[in-house]
Structure formats: structure tokens, C-alpha cells
Design a protein that fits this description.
Length: about 220
């Protein structure tokens, strides 16, 4: 990971070799997964696959991204279906669509503060489409800002524990556990963590429990 101050002054941020993928459940703020690695197609495939495996049991899914098209392309390979005869009107222009109940859209940053919302690939004819005002990745962007404040590896003034992908991934995993199980989230009810909002546990979990337990069985109960 190129995160030193010298690197930041010499090269623009987009020239950095590191890339981090985040997936967050909007209602509970549960941090589903975070993966670090080189900015390659394989990273997007692995991250999207893990998030899709977590979300696909749900009946209705709204998958909103921050403008990176590769999320949608990676998901399209796993969640697209072909409409059978009789599933849609003969005038419906699309045969290959998202699976029923899945809606995928992204918010693209526009000029002068005017954002642009774009739906990625055609939706299933039986899937309800959200209003454009509901399509946003604000929760994920807020999580990115909080991660930069809490994790020194992202501050570009130092490269603590970010000299290798393995070290950055270890820091991300620890931050995700603290976010989900230890620290109450300001967007939820008082003294409620994302894990509590999801129904995984009924109380706050201390960092000592998190570091000493061998499995989540002792945390959930």
C-alpha cells in the first residue's frame, strides 16, 4: 500500500495501488464486508461475491453503489436471469434482466452539485423501482470518512500496518468487528450496535470479549 507522505506529494491519489471495497446494510448500518487489495477485476469479483452471498436470501434487495461500474458488472454475472415466455409482455424490450426483487442503481457525482442517478442494467418486470431520491450511498460514504479518522493506515501521513495488503486487511477486519459489535452507532437507537439492530446479539460487546473469545457463540448469547 502506497500511503506515505512522500508518495502523496509525488503522485495523485488515483495512482495508488491500494483499493478497499465496502458493503454496508443501510437500515442497520451493519458492515457486511471489507476487502483490501490491488485495483484489479479479481478484487471486485471476490468482494461482490461475498456481499451477494450474504444478501441473496432476502426477498427484496436494493443494491446502490457510489458510481463504480465494476460493482454492477461483477454482480450481473451472478444475479442475472433470462425471462421465460409468459413472464413479461411481448413488447418488453429486455430478455436478460436482474433476478426478481433485485434493483441495482448507482449515484454519479455531477457538476455544480447536481448528482445523476443511473440504473445499472434492466430490472425484472415484477421488481418495484425506487425513487431517484432514495438512490444514494451516503451511509457508505460516511463510513469511509469515519474509517479515515479511526484507521491510521488511511491518513496518507504514515503507513502504519499498510505496507502490505495482508496488514491492511488485518486492520480492516478489526475495525469491522468493532463497528458491528462494540461501538454503538449514532444512526440507531441509544446504545445500539449494528449487530444488535440485525438481531445477532442483545447487548454491547466489550473489546476484551472480542479479543479473547474463540468464536461468536459466546458473543451472540
Amino acid at each position: 500500500m502506497k500511503c506515505t507522505l512522500v508518495w502523496a506529494r509525488t503522485f495523485p491519489p488515483e495512482a495508488s495501488e491500494g483499493w478497499t471495497l465496502h458493503f454496508i446494510e443501510r437500515q442497520s448500518r451493519y458492515w457486511i464486508g471489507a476487502q483490501a487489495g490491488k485495483k484489479q477485476a479479481q478484487l471486485f469479483k471476490q468482494g461482490t461475491q461475498s456481499a451477494w452471498n450474504w444478501a441473496k436470501p432476502a426477498q427484496f434487495i436494493r443494491w446502490f453503489t457510489d458510481g463504480e461500474r465494476r460493482y454492477g458488472k461483477a454482480l450481473w454475472q451472478r444475479a442475472c436471469v433470462y425471462l421465460q415466455s409468459g413472464q413479461a409482455h411481448r413488447d418488453y424490450p429486455h430478455r436478460k434482466v436482474w433476478c426478481e426483487g433485485l434493483e441495482v442503481a448507482m449515484k454519479i457525482k455531477g457538476s455544480q452539485g447536481n448528482r445523476r442517478v443511473e440504473w445499472v442494467y434492466p430490472e425484472h418486470p415484477f421488481t418495484a423501482v425506487s425513487a431517484a431520491s432514495e438512490v444514494h450511498a451516503n451511509h457508505n460514504e460516511a463510513q469511509n470518512s469515519a474509517l479515515r479518522r479511526r484507521c491510521s493506515a488511511y491518513r496518507r501521513r504514515q503507513n502504519l500496518y499498510a505496507k502490505h495488503v495482508r496488514g491492511l486487511q488485518r486492520v480492516l477486519d478489526m475495525q469491522r468487528l468493532i463497528h458491528n459489535w462494540v461501538r454503538p452507532h449514532w444512526g440507531l437507537a441509544k446504545s445500539t450496535t449494528p449487530a444488535m439492530a440485525m438481531g445477532f446479539c442483545e447487548r454491547l460487546v466489550s473489546i476484551h470479549e472480542l479479543l479473547t473469545c474463540r468464536g461468536f457463540e459466546s458473543i451472540i448469547h
